[in-house]
Structure formats: C-alpha cells, structure tokens
C-alpha cells in the first residue's frame, strides 16, 4: 500500500481557498483536525510547564487612584513592565458595556451567514478590512492555529463606517475610541516609569497607529493536538488585550506558562528595560473564545521614523543593545517569519 505524502502547502491552500476558516471546519462537524493544525508531538508538554495563576502574583494595577496617587501607579507599572512585560488593569475607565458589545460584535460577524462573511475574505493587507484565518498561513513553518480573525486600522486613517461589516460596525468604532483614550494614559504612565517626560513616547509617534485584530477561537475536537495561537511576542509598542471569560491565554514567566485571568493587559519594548512577554493561547473542546487585541503601532503604514533604544536611557553602563530600524523593516520580517516562538527583535541586536 502506497502512503500519500503529506503536502502541507497544498492542504493550506485548499483550506484558504474555502474561505470558511476554522469556523467552517467546526460547522462541517469534523471529528479529527486536519494535519496542518497538528503540533509536533509533545509541544504542549515541553519543559515550559503550565501553572495556575494562583501560583504567581500576576500584576494587577488599579487605575482608580491614578489621579490621586499617580506616583504609586507609575511605580507599580515600572515593576510590572520590567519583571513581567505584562500587567492587568482594573478600573481603567472603559465601560463594561463597550467591552461586552465588541465581544458580541465579533461573535455576530463570525457566526453570520458564511456567504456574507466570505465577501470580506482577503489576503491583501492593504485592504481597509481584512478577514482570514492565520495571517502567516503560507509563511510560518509552525502548525496552523485554531482561530479565525479580522483586522483593520482604526487610527490614524480609519475606514469609513460603510466599509465595516454591519454585524460589528458600531461596536468597533466605539471600542476604538476608548482604546485611544486608555492608550494615551498608558503611554504617559509608561514614559514616567522610564524616568522620562510623560509625553516622550507619544512624541515618538508610538500611538500614531491603532491596529485592531479580533480573534475567534471555536471549540476544537482535539485541543490537545493543536493550539489557538503559537507562542510569540507582539510587534507593537503597546498591546491592550481584551479577552472573554473562557480563558486560554498564557504568558511565559521564569520558564513557566502561567494562565492569565481575563482582564485587559499591556506590554512594551524599550532596550530590554521593559520586556515583551512571550505568550500563547490554548485551544479548548467546549467553548468559543473571543479576544480583541489593540496594537499601538503603524506596522505596514508608511512611516519613515527610525526607531531604536531611547537615547535618554543609554549610558556607558547601558549601551544600546539594538540597532536602529524602521517599523516597515521590522514588520516585514515579523510577518515573513510568522508566529514561530522566536523573538524577531533579536535579529536587530548589536
């Protein structure tokens, strides 16, 4: 008997051309996941063990007192960003109703009539609104992730309302307004945590662009064989993440993957003073998980600004660890590499 050789590219292409994403596989009631989704054996049970959040004190910072005791909040952010690259924010000023409505909007989009959804399917990153499954489907050497996504820039040049799907249009616009406001405050506090003026990071165009990705992780019949999102670190200046109550997000800390309870979080990279947390999302068998990531970065938008270690933070004792580069140069490499668990930033080390 001749065994047919596994052709990953052809299977990825067939999956892509169906334009139905992972949700389409679930709707077809598959009981075994296609081979392109399968992790190498033992990947999820490697030396980086999963532990409960209760075993570690993941930083939770209360913004209710940011005006009364700003210095205390800044100190907590400094400690969290230096040691974790990740912290959770409560009493952040974004109405719960806004957060709930964007989650509902994401669900409405992915669970609407497949033919309506397919009309938005594209691999053209220049489109105002991009729906597909796995942005790195053809470039990543890792397994295909068990999730579908749509994405768009909500700043500095947002789509016209009619360019957004009716299912989530109003929710996207309202949510983005609040993310811009919260992002402005976070950049001020992070600047102060670095010992810089509160406007320093904003003056470097760190919040010029707001790129939104909306993820939909449907139930998986074999969650132990695949993953929702491969381990990676983000390519933005700052990420604010909203996840629903299903959970599944884990961050790497001291060589352990730690479960993160669902509260928005953030991260930033600055010459290794503040670390960028490596993280991943596990699949689950029973529930659909929804998350919304707000990335403050211009990514592939035209931007001639050259970035590197902040000069005020450098000294003879702390020389630059990275060379200067443009965001376009960085992002092209990040996208071509895909989510393979390795930090793309390391390729710019001096």
From TrEMBL:
PROSITE patterns: FE2OG_OXY (PS51471)
Keywords: Iron, Metal-binding, Oxidoreductase
KW Metal-binding (keyword) present: yes
Alphabetized InterPro entries for the sequence: DIOX_N, IPNS-like_FE2OG_OXY, IPNS-like_sf, Oxoglu/Fe-dep_dioxygenase_dom
Keyword match Metal-binding: yes
Domain Fe2OG dioxygenase span(s) in chain numbering: 208-298
Cofactor entry: Fe cation
Gene3D superfamilies per the UniProt record, alphabetical: B-lactam Antibiotic, Isopenicillin N Synthase, Chain
Molecular function in Gene Ontology: dioxygenase activity; metal ion binding
Family of the protein in this entry: Belongs to the iron/ascorbate-dependent oxidoreductase family.
Protein name: Fe2OG dioxygenase domain-containing protein
Annotated source species: Thlaspi arvense
